[in-house]
Amino acid sequence: MRRLRGGVAAAVVLVFAVAGCKAETKTGSGGPEQTGGGGGAALTAAESLTVKGRAPKTGYARDRFGTAWADTDSNSCDTRDDILKRDLKDVRFTGGTCKVSYGVLESDPYSGKKVTYRRGRSQVDIDHMVALSDAWQKGAKYWDASKRIALANDPLNLLSVDAGTNRSKGDGDTATWLPPNKAFRCTYVSAQVAVKKKYGLWVTAAEKAAMEKVLRSCPGQKLPSGGNPTNAPSRFHAD
Question: Is 230 exposed, middle or buried (0-12, 13-18, 19+ CB in 10 A)?
């Protein structure tokens, strides 16, 4: 296990299993602490989400969620590099143990293909599984900046994925976009449910129906948990 600066080594992270719609855990740094609840916890959580209409996108901008990839866990590495280190294999660094210069996504969760990461010409994106624009329209518009910054940098909501596949998603929710890799859909939707439940975001009626449809196909799906606190340290600010 690679040690991160700042004392976050030995946290437990979620590993998204690409086959069989199962979630498991292993030691790592900076990510979710465990898979939560018993069998069916993800479906139960989805059923409990508040349903409202989508609010207008008026006022949304990326900087309302703070500077991209802020080091909210204070380990001296930015969030993007933390997630790359968590998800990639054969990782190499530039100038220390923070800046990832190379790594391999052995099986992209969204497409199932092997993708190579090279800094500066990357084919790997870090996806917000609950898109920030979607969050804005379903509650985050009314939060203080600290909570929005926390969401944007929470490992529970972040995943290294194939850039081309990710960009077909846009700011879609479960009702409008699911990973082409069908074997990953239960895990993907359970992660979205976990994030929305953790932060108190609502869902549209169509989104909730889509979540429940996916999760009924894997009734034993657990609910991911952990990640960072829902408020960023006070030194971080957003416009």
Answer: middle
Alpha helix stretches (DSSP H) within 28-78? 41-48
Vertex 175: Cα angle to 123 and 155 (nearest 5): 45
Domain ranges of the chain: 9-225
Integer Cα distance of 4 and 96 in angstroms:
11
Quick one: pLDDT at residue 198? 98
Q: Token pair for residue 237?
A: 């600010």
Residue owning tokens 């479906």:
43
Q: Are 179 and 125 in contact (CB under 8 A)?
A: no
Q: Which amino acid is at 202?
A: W
What tens digit of pLDDT does each residue of 104-114 get?
A: 999 999 999 99
**Total length of the chain:** 239
Tens digit of pLDDT for each residue in 21-48? Answer: 443 333 233 444 444 555 689 999 999 9
**Residues 158/129, Cβ–Cβ less than 8 Å:** yes
